[in-house]
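Bench notes, afternoon.
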Amino acid sequence: MIRTARLEDASSLAAIGIEVWLNTYIRDGVNALFADYALEHFTTSRFEDALSKADNFILVSENKAGIDGFVHIALDAPAPVAGCSDLEIAKLYVQPRHQGSGAGGRLLQAALRVCAGTGRPDVWLAVNAENQRATDFYLRKGFAKAGETRFQIHDQSYPNHVLRYDLALVAA
């Protein structure tokens, strides 16, 4: 089931955020740089803050046991490349054990419907350039490469693809 996130979901969203982010970026052991980043950015209070803002939308995928994924949409989020609106899919996270279940596709379709309702012509997102599985997922769903950016953590940076989706493609 896909539904709008509620304030009481904030701790679950934080836990999923940490799990998915670490699973994506940590391959050779956890160091303090990555641990500190994850523990600072994926907190209950940050999700409570996002849920209380009118320019943020969070949808969750919920199974019989609880939340297994979420998508976070942000308005007024300028793209790092030209040719994209200020509408961003900031995160689409599905627990690793639920990837391949269709939850990500259902979350994405629900998010695109929300995005289409904003009146913007398109939505953009950034994906880790080394995460070929995620890049392929978005390209299969109709996104196109719009450029490149870098994800910065202190003095380290990592290449990211910027992908764009034309919202005229969303079925009414």
